[in-house]
Amino acid sequence: MGESRGAELLWGSRGKTARPQRLALTVDRIADAAIEVADAEGMAAVSMQHVAAQLEVTKMALYRHVASKAELVAVMIESAVGEPPDLTTVPGGWRPRLVRWADLMRAAWDRHPWLPAATTGERLTGPREVGWTESAVAALADTGLDGSERMDAVFLLSGHIRNTQSAATAGTQPWTAEKHLRDILRDHSHRFPALLEAEGSTNGSARDNGWSFGLERILDGLAVLIDSRR
Amino acid sequence: MGESRGAELLWGSRGKTARPQRLALTVDRIADAAIEVADAEGMAAVSMQHVAAQLEVTKMALYRHVASKAELVAVMIESAVGEPPDLTTVPGGWRPRLVRWADLMRAAWDRHPWLPAATTGERLTGPREVGWTESAVAALADTGLDGSERMDAVFLLSGHIRNTQSAATAGTQPWTAEKHLRDILRDHSHRFPALLEAEGSTNGSARDNGWSFGLERILDGLAVLIDSRR
DNA sequence: ACACCTTGTGTCCGCCGGACACACAAGTTA
DNA sequence: TAACTTGTGTGTCCGGCGGACACAAGGTGT
C-alpha cells in the first residue's frame, strides 16, 4: 500500500506533496470504520488491514491509536451498545422495566448483528456495558431478591438476548437451522419423531427465534419467585 | 516437518525405511487428538498443525480424512456431546425429565469446556446433536404446548446451558468477571450503585454462574404456561 | 510385471496480528 | 533562525493460520 512516490517527486509540486489534508486518525474514527465493516460484512471481515483500508491508511497506523485488535473490538462494542437507558421513569414496577430494558437492548443488538460474535470469550469490558447491567439490576431493587439473585436474573435475561440474536444471524443451533433442519428431517425423520411432529404442529406463530416466548417464560419464572418472597 | 532423508538413504536399511508401522490415520483418531488438544489447551489451540503434530503427521495428511477444519470441528462436537439420553424412563412428567436432560447436557459440556466456543456461528450439525434436541422436545410431548412452543422451550433451556458454560470458562460477561467487576466497582462505585449494593447483599449462595437459578426460573416459567393450558 | 489407487509429504499462497525501524511535519527551545 | 523533540503514518519482516496442488511410495488387482 502507498504507491511509489517517484513520479510525484519528479513531476509533482514537490513542496507540499506528502501528507495531504486528510482527516486526522482518531480512536473514534477507527471504531466507526470498524463498525461500518462489521455491520456490512460481519465480524469475520474485521481485520486490521480491512479497517485500515477503509480509512485509506496502513494497518500499522491504527496501532498508534489502539494497542491491539482486542482493544479495537472493545471500543467497537462500547460504541455500538450505546448509553444505558434510564428505566426509573417506566411505570408498573420491575416487570415493565425489564421488558423495556430487554427491548432496548435487543434493538441495539439488532442494529449491530456482530455483537454476539464480538462479545464471546475473554475480553475487556467497558463502562457502558457495565452500565446496562447496572440499569437492569436497579430495576430489580424492590423485588425482595438478594444481590446474587438479582445478578443471576439479569444474567439469565441478557443471555436470552444473546442467544436469540446469535441464532438470528447464524443458523447456529440445530433447532434454528430452519432449512437445514427440514432437510435432515426429510431424510432421517424416523430417527427424530418428536421433532417431526413439533415441526408439523406449529400454530403458525411469528418466527422470532423464540425471543418473545423465552422472554415471557423468564419473566413469569421471576414473578413466581418474587411473589413467593412477599 | 519430516527431516531430510538423505543420511537415511545412504546409511539406513534402504529397503523398508519409509512409512514405519505406525497406526493408520482415521477420522476418529484425528477427532480424538483434536479433542485432547481442545480439552487441554482450549479451542484456540486447535489448528490443523497442532492436531497433526499430536499425531506425528503433517497437517496435510489430515485433509485426506476431513475436508476442512470446519468438518473436523463438527466431528469433534459430535464425538464430544455423546449419545443423546433416553428420558422416557424418568418418572414424574416433563419437569423431572427436563431437569435430567439439562443435568446430563451440562455434564457433557463440563467435560469439554470448549464446546461453547466450538458451537457458535454458522456450522454443520450432526445427528447426535439433533438427537439431544429430539430428546428434550419429546419430553414436552404431553404438555399441551404446540410444536413451535416446544421448540422454543428447548431453545431457551439449551441457551441457558450454553450461557452458563461459556461464562464458566471465560469471564466473558460483565456480571461474571468476578475479580474484574470488583475492581471496576472499587474505582467507579458511584456510577454503579445498584451493582455495588447487589455485590454486597448476596446471601452467600454457591457460585455456579446462575446455573441453578436460571434453570429453576425457566422451568417455573414453563410450568406457568403449561398449567394455564390445562 | 505392471498399472492403479490410497495415503502421507513438501512447497507454495494469501491473510492474519503484531514488532520494529524509519520518514517527516509541527512545535519547542536556544 | 537552527537544532531538537514529539507525534503520526509507512514499509518490511516474522510466525502462524487454512488450504491448493504436485509428488512419492506403499499396497493391491490383473
UniProtKB/TrEMBL annotation, chains A, B:
GO terms for biological process: negative regulation of DNA-templated transcription. PROSITE patterns: HTH_TETR_2. PANTHER family: HTH-TYPE TRANSCRIPTIONAL REGULATOR RUTR (PTHR30055), TRANSCRIPTIONAL REGULATORY PROTEIN (PTHR30055:SF151). It comes from Saccharothrix tamanrassetensis. The keyword Cytoplasm does not apply. Keywords: DNA-binding, Transcription, Transcription regulation. It comes from the Bacteria. Residues 24-84 form the HTH tetR-type domain. This is AcrR family transcriptional regulator. One of its GO terms (molecular function) is transcription cis-regulatory region binding. Residues 47-66 bind DNA.
